Amino acid sequence: MAQLERIEPIREQAEAEPAAGSGQQTFADGDISAAYEATAGGLLRAGPPESGDGLRTEELLLNVGPQHPSTHGVFRVIVKLDGEVIREAIPVMGYLHRGTEKLAENLNYTQIIPYTDRMDYVSAMTNNYVLVNAVEKMLQLEIPERAQFLRLIVMELQRIASHMVWWGTYLLDIGAMSPFLFAFRDREIIINLFNELCGARLTYNYMRVGGVKWDAPPGWIDKVREFIPYMRKKLDEYNNLVSGNEIFLARIQGIGKYDAQTAISYGLSGANLRCTGVSWDLRKDQPYCIYDRFEFDVPVGKNGDCYDRYLLRLEEMRQSLRILEQAVAQFPDGGDIMGKAPRVIRPPEGEAYAAIESPRGEIGCYIISRGKQEPFRLKFRRPSFVNLQILPKLLVGETMTNLITILGGIDIVVGEVDA
Amino acid sequence: MMHFLEQPFGWSNFFVFLLLGIVMLLIVLGFVTYAIYFERKVIGWMQFRIGPNRTGPLGLLQSVADVTKLLIKEDTIPRKAERQLFILAPVITFIPSFAAIAVLPFASNLFFADLDVGILYYVALSGISTIGIVLGGWASNNKYALLGGMRSAAQMISYEVPLVISVVGIVMMTGTLNLRLIVEGQAGGFWHWNFIPQIIGFVVFVIAGISELNRTPFDLPEAESELVAGYHVEYSGFRFAFFMLAEYVYVFAIASLTTVLFLGGWQSPLPVLDFIPGIILVPAQIFVHRLFLLLAARDAAAHPDRPAHGSRLAGAAAARDRQHFRQRDFNGIGGWGRMKGIMKGLGVTFKAMTAKKVTYAYPDVPLEMPDRFRGIQHFEPDKCIVCNMCAKICPTECITLTGKPNPDPEKKGKVIDTYDINFEICILCDLCTEVCPTEAIVMTNNFELSTYSRDELFKDMKWLTDNNENVRKENNSAAPKGGAKANA
Amino acid sequence: MLDRLIGFLSSGENLVFFVFSLVAICGAIFMISLTRVVHMVMALALTFLSLGGIYITLGAEFVGWVQVLIYAGAITILMIFGIMMTRHRGEAETEPQRPWHNGLLLVGAIVLFGILFYVIQNATITPQSAPVDPKDNTLQIGQLLFNQYVIPFEIMSVLLTVAFIGAIVVAKREED
Ligand code: SF4
Ligand code: SF4
């Protein structure tokens, strides 16, 4: 909680003077397409910038995406380019919008779980958890020890897998092809572990209100145990492969910089916040599950640039391995994997908000229940979406190449941006 | 060259040249084909993959297949493109690339043109190719292509100069621009080769050469991750093939040029090896150099590339950029410390080449899935009690079922009549099998669902019943239900 | 007349010269008459190229390839680059038709051609005393430049350096 107090004053300050010019306002109300037309039209009408000598270069309105290889799915940024320098950028989102929150209002809680898999599809386990955690909060359920451990282990494995996807694709964006395959080779091990555990490779639908669906199959925990030293070695290899490469450093050091205050006023979380030096990790600061039983550090950066975010994520993988090591050692021998959950889940009337630290930041789930089987209203705080809001600010004045570097550094998953 | 122009045209002359030209074309095409194959193989090895291995023995015919495909593909020209220039651009790029090969001497008596200004000729022609790239980018009427074209122009302006200047030392040493004479000046063992006295020139030449070729880490004009494919994004079929061909012909040319200028051409490295005919040495050297090009560039840059400065090419900034680029190059050479990271990365890459390959031979060797794998459902009509639980729990509502009264009048209840799952929307979430009280619906390990029509994804009871291979043994861990019951 | 023409054309060198000059002239005409700027630049590049070709047929290989390198390569690319970066809309401006203007132009052109033709026909061109050896003309250019013409050469290079620095300064100011 010490950190919390440290941030609070900055938060208040930030609230006092809201961030100016954030792209959010553009899309705050009404029809997104109308908002987009208006802004894009505004872009088009805007004349070229004044230049002293009367030399004038043509400005180019470029649609980056929605089918662009480096926007990680169907995300689109309209950029106004002067040569290669970005003068203005407007993110357009919603191409992958599936109305998860609205759909959820007609589904019972068990049925919503597979939908959460599809929000941040790179990190389905944490999404599962945030939903069941919110419901469990309302029901005030006791979760059996073994289920807690299984949940924690899969979430940390998931964090590693998710960061690996990020690492591989980020370097792919920057132009290196091999790291992607390095990362996916090792991620495959985690995926196979999950596959053995719950029968799916990406959308696990593993957690249930009150526990988890499957117990660990025989030998599974040993496989996780073997994985830890293997992954440590691989992390060193990753570092050797890329982290010191001068061309790489030239491309990401000092790019996409912002300070702690900006980060907080934009509501950033996860590595995007910690890279500015703010130590804020829900696993430590608002412990959930059984994180308070384990020892781990929250790495923080200090420059707030893409390079810090890069290093942070690598370090977070190491910390996750540390947690895993302890969790595997303490893993209980027997016990239930399901708590005493009612057969029909009907939370009492009321509200609950549960927030956890997903690989991308603070993912939250807010439920209003009217005592029915279905939630009256369900709302996710989706870190990718929130973190993305700083993009237009960061892009102005950068080059086209850096657009990719910055966007990749934020680490969005379009499924989560659009939900 | 001059004396052929001065001579009246003779048919015999003409045919000799035509024949030699065709032979050369075939050699170059063969080189291109296998350069691509080789490149793909090596990159594959670096990434724990096998590389092309399906077409022909060891995948040797892969490039041939690719080129054939490109040649017979539909030729699309975007409606809003500048038609004439769009067609012209690959031609402008390709012709100089091939013409540039004419001056390369392959042995002391095998060369196509003994030009006094050989180096100049090469540089001049390669510059014209760039016009083709820029034009292609512009004519495509595509903003990404335009940006790619502009980058290409800026890069060419930036790197052409160091490329030429790096050769000046050699020209001054040898006192000639004639490539054949330059090679002759390097006779007598590798310590006479130019790369030793001209080591800086050599390094600059290699770096600038890679950039001339638009290869990683200088593939700014293509930059597939940001500009998608740059200047040739709108090109397809054989026009695209011509751009590719030109690129690889230049790879051949730059590799040969490096050999000729710095690595002694056909002169044998040790006097003892003089008996080896020069004609063998040159290809061997080109091959070695090509390998180097591949590795240096592909450290691919297997590692991150494209100097950030490279893209700040707008307008008048070209001049400034040139400085940036040059600075980079010389820093690279001067400060060994700055190269350490790249070297480390290279080490990892090399190690990866011998690591275990992870490629699956998928359709040939079926993938083994763990027992819990959630594949396509298997349905057993006899077990079903038509309780409708599965249809109710299904979050995507893809199960439809109807029951009918039990034909056996003695028994009560219903039996299943129709049972359909729409696999267009089934998300294989496992909930139906979880709730089914009789395990009438269970998962299998099969996952191949692809069909030619969406309608076929609608599977009925018969199909689901017949889908009875690899049925999952453990269909539900008992715990969730047990726990729930305890509470109920 | 016809004999002379055939005789002229049967020499390879003359034929090549003829083709190159034709292309050069065509390029120049297209350059003026085309409407799209990029097309104009292409026509110009064609002219540059054929000029390079003419130099080469004249035995000035060095000058010829430098022409190709600098003009057909670098300068053309710079021009295309500039055109791409700047606005070039509203190309299709049609000037009001003035028929008598065209007539006048035609008369002027014919007169000019007549004069030139007459002068060239009547001129007696004495061949150079020692014909340049095409084999070694790079060497000769170098020798001339660094002996006889060293001062103009140096002055030129200083001038170019000044222009170069000036260009950078202008570009830099524009940027800030
Ligand atoms: S697996 Fe899920 S989506 Fe598919 S039929 Fe069963 S319940 Fe429905
Ligand atoms: S849940 Fe099982 S028994 Fe009930 S209708 Fe579905 S398949 Fe039949």
From TrEMBL, chain C:
Reaction catalysis annotation: a quinone + NADH + 5 H(+)(in) = a quinol + NAD(+) + 4 H(+)(out)
Membrane topology of this protein: Multi-pass membrane protein
Keyword list, A-Z: Cell membrane, Membrane, NAD, Quinone, Transmembrane, Transmembrane helix
Entry EC no(s): 7.1.1.-
Top-level EC class: translocase
Subcellular localization(s) per the UniProt record: Cell membrane
InterPro entries associated with the record: NADH_UbQ/plastoQ_OxRdtase_su6 (IPR001457), Nuo/plastoQ_OxRdtase_6_NuoJ (IPR042106)
Domain of life: Bacteria
Record's function text: NDH-1 shuttles electrons from NADH, via FMN and iron-sulfur (Fe-S) centers, to quinones in the respiratory chain. Couples the redox reaction to proton translocation (for every two electrons transferred, four hydrogen ions are translocated across the cytoplasmic membrane), and thus conserves the redox energy in a proton gradient.
NCBIfam families in UniProt: PRK06638.2-3
Protein name listed in UniProt: NADH-quinone oxidoreductase subunit J
Organism: Gordoniibacillus kamchatkensis
